[in-house]
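Structure Section — protein described below
Tokens — whole-number codes for backbone shape
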Amino acid sequence: MSGHSKWATIKHKKAALDAKRGKSFTRIIKEITIAARSGGDPDGNPRLRTAILAAKAVSMPADNIKKAVMRGTGELEGGQIEEVMFEGYGPGGAAVLVNVATDNRNRTVADIRHAFSKNGGNMAEQGAVAWMFERKSQILIPGEKATEDQLMSIVLDAGADDLRGNADEEWQVLSAPEAHEAVLKALEANGLQPSESSIAMVPKNLVKLEGKNAAGMLRLSEALEDHEDVQSVYSNFDIDEKELEALAQ
């Protein structure tokens, strides 16, 4: 996997700590609320179903999930959340997409701009870097759960486009967004529960970073991901695995 994917995996392993601080809960509640605008029935709304599964994975109370759905469908007040994608460049020229969910766009724009400038990056105009990414279904499976041949047989038959990763770390299943539900169901039917599943922005090409640029890019990623309005951060950086693990300590 790319350095960014590896970094995302390292970050995912820290999700339990985020949940204790309430960050995961806040992000997932916002995602449920936004997803529910397209319908409150998870059986007919793949995005909502994915968000609810994420909520259950961090032991979110059922009442919290229900209220978030009701805010999204308009049955409860408080669903005025705007979803925005910001674009920019990090140290070394790596492209960055920042997906936010906010009730105060002006405040969030200022905060995100500050995070970029403080960490050696800069904001860019809409469309400046988005073309470097593809919107894909991304499903992560723990490496020890299946062999490459087993996964290939399951996901390709279900409509997946690609399988990346390895048995020592994590498998990354990539599909067209419309195939997300079918691939997810195929994996679950075979007893394979994903560690994460989402519609993500996957980079078409990677930018190799080393030394100060690598360290700066990870600081920028941390700063963005720690913001309360940021739902997800995508980038096309690639850092050598040994250097990445050393920087993650």
Remarks:
- The radius of gyration is 18 Å.
